[in-house]
Amino acid sequence: MSTVEFRDERAAVFTVAGGDWDTVVEGAGEVPEERVVVNMGPQHPSTHGVLRLILELAGETVTDARCGIGYLHTGIEKNLEYRTWTQAVTFITRMDYLAPFANEVAYCLAVEKLLGITAQVPERATVIRVLLMELNRISSHLVSIATGGMEIGALTVMTIGFRERELVLDLFELITGLRMNHAFVRPGGVARDLPAGAEGNIAGFVKVMRERIRDYEHLCTANRIFVARTKDIGFLDLAGCLALGITGPVLRAAGLPHDLRRSEPYCGYENYEFEVATWDGCDAYGRFRVRLEEIGQSLSIVEQCLDRLRPGPVMVADRKIAWPAQLTVHGDGLGNDHEYVREIMGESMESLIHHFKLVTEGFRVPPGQVYSAVESPRGEMGVHAVSDGGARPYRVHMRDPSFVNLQAVPAMCEGGMVADVIASIASIDPVMGGVDR
């Protein structure tokens, strides 16, 4: 790492490492007292991923905070232009990798709007989508609470958070064949039906999770150190949230009950009973309380999903759109059903041709553009999809909540102590895969 020293006309010595020399040298002559510019990150997990924070300090007080992003850039949005509409799901699911089902559903809802088949998606597929999104909300919030606790020294919060998350990932593996990066939600429905025994396993998890929520209450809300390290930390009031376009738990912790599941329902959320969790502290503690309450509300929605499940198809009937493969979970993961492979490889030339054409070329989507959004664990996950009438997206742009919410870092951190920066970042809960897509 390079280090340089320079001296201003008042004989104050500044030592700076890591870059941004011109900015620091120019600004050094403008301030009467010493300023130190340091890099925090990019390192994981202390900055919640490969996030670089450029902090200007006056002693232990943060006087300026900036985010340096782009270290995880994958070019996902551009890559979508070179894949079929269905193949694009395998990229979409990898953006916010802690909430893959929210990514997939937001994208597929947009494609279905363009196709004009929103009303044709089977009811069972829609319920399965809601079921998976709410389980995903639980697992994502558990990671946020666990890592947030670890970063302020509450290691037991981290261990129990990942303990419960493992139970959710086991359910994902049972249903989709994978623990993450599922590509399970497809335009027109989902890749496969729930396997035998899945509903009972989900019900068992709900029962266990309801009992273990109390562990987080005892370890956090009743812990004076945890409360002291989060209360009045990372303050951002409602006016600030609205000015910056902040959504999700950060906004609801400022007292506004804005939740797309209520304000702009999708996937039949208007038919589910749940409360929008809010808090009025505008701080890191309030965001923790909102996420903890949302876990309880999601458990209620999951139970309602289990009650709503009725036998039926999980993909649209139009065979020119429906993904042709009949998928099942085997020892090596999710793959084509053996009977289906036998049909297309040895019994029906027409089925083989249909499979080959649809998989390699994909279906065509009428020209147009739409915007579709869902309430991900971090806020509004939006998709602006544009079609030129071809079999591939002309353009897809994602409104990722982590990217937008990171705008709050200066407002939360400037004027506070450097020791509170990590607690503030943890309360935002950014996922850099979504920021740097």
Automatic annotation (TrEMBL):
InterPro entries listed in its UniProt record: NADH_Q_OxRdtase_suD, NADH_UbQ_OxRdtase_49kDa_CS, NDH1_su_D/H, NiFe-Hase_large
Keywords: Cell membrane, Membrane, NAD, Oxidoreductase, Quinone, Translocase, Transport
Listed EC numbers: 7.1.1.-
Stretches assigned to the NADH-quinone oxidoreductase subunit D domain: 152-437
Keyword set includes S-adenosyl-L-methionine: no
Pfam family, one: Complex1_49kDa
Catalytic reactions of this protein: a quinone + NADH + 5 H(+)(in) = a quinol + NAD(+) + 4 H(+)(out)
Transmembrane parts of this sequence: none
Main subcellular localisation: membrane
Location in or out of the cell: Cell membrane
GO molecular function: oxidoreductase activity
Superkingdom to which the source organism belongs: Bacteria
Annotated membrane topology: Peripheral membrane protein
Role noted for this protein: NDH-1 shuttles electrons from NADH, via FMN and iron-sulfur (Fe-S) centers, to quinones in the respiratory chain. The immediate electron acceptor for the enzyme in this species is believed to be a menaquinone. Couples the redox reaction to proton translocation (for every two electrons transferred, four hydrogen ions are translocated across the cytoplasmic membrane), and thus conserves the redox energy in a proton gradient.
Assigned protein family: Belongs to the complex I 49 kDa subunit family.
Quaternary context: NDH-1 is composed of 14 different subunits. Subunits NuoB, C, D, E, F, and G constitute the peripheral sector of the complex.
Protein name per UniProt: NADH-quinone oxidoreductase subunit D
Upper lineage: Bacteria, Bacillati, Actinomycetota, Actinomycetes, Pseudonocardiales
Gene (UniProt): nuoD
